[in-house]
Amino acid sequence: MPPPRKTDLLPAEMKDWFKQALKDGGFSGYEQIADDLNARLEEAGYSLRISRAGAQRFGAEYKEFVKYQEEAGAWAADWINDQGLEEEANRHGVLFQMLTTLAFKFMKGQMEDGREVDPKELHFIGRMMKDIMASSGIREQLIAKEKERIQEEERTRAATMVEKIAKKAGMTAATVEGIKAEILGVET
Predict the structure, then answer these.
(1) 90 to each of 10, 86, 128, 132, how far by Cα in Å?
(2) Which secondary-structure segment (H or E) carries 2?
(3) Residues 65, 69, 71, 115, Cα dihedral to 10°
(4) pTM for this structure?
């Protein structure tokens, strides 16, 4: 089993800073980023040091990951825009399944490389899954409210129509109001 890469040993806060520095630097200037990271590590009391080559290897992998994230986000946005609100639950299921597959693929890749799977590495996938589940609940509420609003509009339209027809038929005002209340589901 090969030893873990030094970039895999970075503390979470340093790795987060490193990833942001790579993005901010346009995935270039690896020597300066490695120097800045090493200075931060030294200042925090860590003996771990990252070489320019190590920073560049990690940067290339992270750049690819960011590219895939952006492509997936654009694809998901296009797909969601093409679908109606009724298809929302299906989309959430598919997205959840995609994230589960991504998590499995990531863990399998880590294990095949002989590295331990650090649960902290999966936090972003867990966060996305949590957001999708929360969004799914919100969407279900929106769908239910929209159905309720449409049903209320239909009942009001039907009650108005019945009221006109009942008045033309010569029914008493009390009878008309009783029929209207029955359609609207209100007590008289």
Answers:
(1) 38, 9, 17, 12
(2) none
(3) 40
(4) 0.45
Mean pLDDT in consecutive groups of 10 residues from the start of the chain, 188 residues: 83 92 92 94 93 92 85 71 61 73 76 74 72 70 82 83 82 79 73
**Whole-number Å distance between alpha carbons of 144 and 34:** 52
User: How many of the other CB atoms lie within 10 Å of CB of 35?
Assistant: 14
Cβ–Cβ < 8 Å for 119, 107: no
Tokens found for residue 102: 């991504």
47-62 in b/e burial notation, b at 16+ Cβ within 10 A?
Answer: eeebeeebbbebbeeb
Structure tokens at 179: 């029929």
Q: By C-alpha distance, which of 94, 105, 29, 90 is closest to 63? A: 29
